[in-house]
Amino acid sequence: MRKRGENVVNKETLVLVHGAWHGPSCWDRLVPELEERGWRTSTVDLPSTSGDPHAGMYDDARAVREHLRAIEGPVTVLAHSYGGVPVTEVAETVPNVRRLVYLAAHMLEAGEAVVTPLGGPWFPQDTELLPAPEPPVEALYHDVPAQWAEAAVARLRPQSARAFTERQTRASWRAVPSALIVCDDDRSMPELFIKRQLTMAGVVRHLPGSHSPFLSRPGELAGLIDEVTDALPARG
Question: What is the pTM of this model?
Answer without folding.
Answer: 0.95
